[in-house]
Amino acid sequence: MSLGQELAPHLPFLRRYARALTGSQQHGDSYVRAALEAIVAAPDDFPREVDARLGLYRTFQRIWASANLEGDDDDVGFGGEREGIAQARLSQVTPRSRQALLLTAMEGFTPEDAGYLIEASAEEVEQLVVDAVAEIERQTRADVLIIEDEPIIAMDLETIVRDLGHNVTGVAVTRDEAVSQALATRPGLVLADIQLADDSSGIDAVKDILAEFNVPVIFITAFPERLLTGERPEPTFLITKPFQRSTVKAAISQALFFDSATVPA
């Protein structure tokens, strides 16, 4: 099997990680593209002492760390409002902590593997995760609309949201109900299932909402690969069913991390 064939199954999830890390599909995909270009240019440098997924993420980490260390984002088309929002938060939450949080909670790496990726010990990774969650929760508070037609899942999401210190404005089970509630309450975050009670689409509900006002959205689906196809538009924040509570918490923290409404003074 060629290196390209080994890496292909992992690319959709690397794009998910990159987008959550940067808060942008465009920026995240640009970093992933740069990592792939580096692999193509120097295949002998690809880490072969670990499995393909770890090697791919390690290559990405090096590209991302180098770009942020050198401050050369503008050279590859980065920048803009969300990066400015991120910088306001990064003065208090280090990129290293956010990487540790996303790699473990969202991408499912063990603390040991995450430590390999960011060059830290497993113990350091665990502390970085604790620090990141505490600081991001302190900085971000929001009203949250949940679009979910399964009562048990909706209740679980509502508990997670409230445990993080946020307010739940409502739980919608259809497209029309979701749009109506969103327009009435103007939430600061939307958690959206894909398939709703009346066979309507959570994607269509979100499109309707975003046509009226901007709000960060986290999609929830049992089939993430259907949304991570490499075609536009794709969600910046995506979690998979059945989900871990820690994954939902990490996604909420990252979505609000880039939300201008909760930038620290």
From TrEMBL:
The modification 4-aspartylphosphate is found at D193. The keyword Oxidoreductase does not apply. The keyword Ribosomal protein does not apply. SUPFAM superfamilies: CheY-like, Sigma3 and sigma4 domains of RNA polymerase sigma factors. Keywords: Phosphoprotein. One of its GO terms (biological process) is phosphorelay signal transduction system. Residues 143-256 form the Response regulatory domain. It comes from the Bacteria. This is Response regulator. The lineage of its organism: Bacteria, Pseudomonadati, Pseudomonadota, Alphaproteobacteria, Sphingomonadales.
